[in-house]
Amino acid sequence: MEMIVNLLLDHNIDSSPNGKLRMKLCPLLYAMVFGTLVPMVTTQSPLLAAGGAAPTKVSVAKPAQSAAAGKPAPKAPAAGAAKMPAANPGAAKKEDDEPDFKDAQSQQLFEKTLDDGISLFKKNKQEEALAQFKKAAEIYKTAIGRNNVAVLNWIGVSQQRLNDWNAAKATYEEIVGMDPNYAEAQNNLAYTYQKLSMLDKAESSYKKALELKPDFLVAHYNLAKVFLEEKNYDESLKQYQKVLSLKPDDNLTSDVIFQLGNIYFQKKDYDQSTTYLEKSLAKNSKNAAVISKLGAIAYAKGDQAKATELFNNALDINPQFYEALVGLGEMELDAKNYNEALTKLGKALEVNPYDAKVHFDLGRIYFALDQYKNSIQQFKDTMTIEKDYPEAQAWMDKVIAKRSGI
User: Fold this and answer.
1) Cα within 13 Å of Cα(34), Cβ side
2) Would you say residue 376 lies in a domain?
3) Cα–Cα distance, 168 to 153 (Å, whole number)
4) In angstroms, rounded to a whole number, what is the distance separating the alpha carbons of residues 174 and 189?
5) What parts of the chain have a pLDDT lower than 50?
6) pTM (two decimals)
7) Residue 100 is part of which domain span?
8) Rounded distance, CA 278 to CA 260, Å?
9) Per-residue pLDDT tens digits for 133-149
10) CATH number for the domain harbouring residue 27
């Protein structure tokens, strides 16, 4: 499920005493993504959502003697509630402390190369864009003697778009090494850690971002997702409630309400879960995720007829909605309708072949149908996906014993 949220796009142009135009782009474009990363680009500055916020300040060094005072490096996207980096080169520096390009030609080459990269980025030609950003970074470093955080952010953005998370990790670690007080970069690094399943590091970096910027909405949202992955439901609830207190737009509000309903479901507080899910459904009556979750609640409460109706309603909206397929399959398994369960869970596995629980259930079904070879294979698959699954090992031992006549 994906929620795309346009939170803020604010353009300001300041004119400094020496007549130099300095652009300050403050775009926030958040995409709430569940399971995938969705690239979004604004007309001015791209921002991959689900993770960050665009740069709050980006400037390019002044040419030593150039009447055409150079424009600052445009800001890269931020990685927050689901995605990308914000550039903030030298946030602690004063304008007068910035080093100079040695000549206008070097600056012009840098700006053209960077602009070419941004143009390619907006066309979603990420490999070509990345090459241009790296070239721009090298031009700047050669001319100035140090890296430009803004350009590094663009590099990280493209790396994220290319799903090269290890490279993005190295880029963001370099950025926060240069400027540890850059909240957006801490958030983007945290999101990268999150994508790499380094949840402890993700949590730490999100908290650092929030120390620097306590009302950083997207960092609160991302941290809530980390706590949810860690099954730390109480802390996740606190973060989602904080997001609501910051008054996000309607799309993000709807998503957070759904997540609150989901958390209460995990806590088995079905009444509270239903309250939030129905609020979410009131905002979007065709939300298969909400309808399916209400089906799971109905089944947990023993109302099989209502659960079946709700699961099927979710599938009417999205025939491949995974949770509904699994819900119907598990209902058939519990009722010992093994062939029906096999069909429905088999369809679910076509959608997501990496769910250990579904493989485990299929192993039990094949055992009940005396298909021992298939049963053993499903339990092996279960433990391949999730190594620490003692029930699968116990069931496989049981099948092997049965097949051997022990």
Assistant:
1) 13
2) no
3) 9
4) 10
5) 1-71, 80-97
6) 0.70
7) 1-244
8) 11
9) 999 999 999 999 999 99
10) 1.25.40.10
